[in-house]
Amino acid sequence: MRKNASRTPSRRLARIATLAVIPLSLLGAGALVSTASYAAFSDTTSNPSNNWAAGTVELSNSSPNSAAFSASNLKPGSTGTTCIAVTSTGTLPAAVKLYAANASQTKSIGDWVNLSVTQGTGGGNGSCDGFSALGSGASVYNNSLSSFMNSVTDYRGGVGNWSTAGGSNPETRTFQITYTVSGDAPSSIMGGTASVNFTWEAQNQ
When you count CB atoms within 10 A of the terminal residue's CB, does the N or C end of the chain come out lower? Predict the structure, then answer.
């Protein structure tokens, strides 16, 4: 009797353990079925290779490494003319202005020198052969050299009305620059000197 009594609990425990495993297995299978039943169709579309690149504003001139003028022994009535071609190769539209940079003078010589700047086409690199002034708006500056050196000193105060279109085609404008020493220039300017950089600057619009 003791042997049977001792076996009976063991069988009951074994049955319980077996039955306990079955529901867990069923639950696991149910979870798989549930997940699979909620799968969704999907699709995508995209617009590829989007890029951004800045445009450019670029200027060059026909005499970048030499002075437009190197005049000496000036006297009342002395005059000289040169032409510089300025070319825009920028891709953006821009407004171009002319102004003075690194200007200096002695004995106020610039008060007695008239500076005239005219814009047009043709000529350049120091030669005005073939230069033709614009039909309208040709005059860029016509006043004393001193006024140009002292007042026209940056882009904001610059002179000129050239607006470039931008794009892939270069655009060129020629500037004819003429100086004339006044016939009334006094002896006090003898030995006087003046120096200036003609500077063209373009800013996109």
Answer: N
